[in-house]
Amino acid sequence: MTLTRFNRELTVLEADVLELGAMVDRQIDRAMRALVDRDIPLARAVIRDDGELNRARFHLDNVCLSLLAQNAPYAGDLRLILAVLGIVTELERAGDHAEGIGRIVVLIAGAPPAAPLDELAEMARRARRMLSDALDAFARRDPELAYRVGRDDDGVDALYDRAYRTLVDAMIARPSAVEGCTRLLWVSHNLERIADRSTNIAERVVFLVSGTLPQMNVSSH
Question: Which domains occur in the chain, in start order?
Answer without folding.
Answer: 3-210 (1.20.58.220)
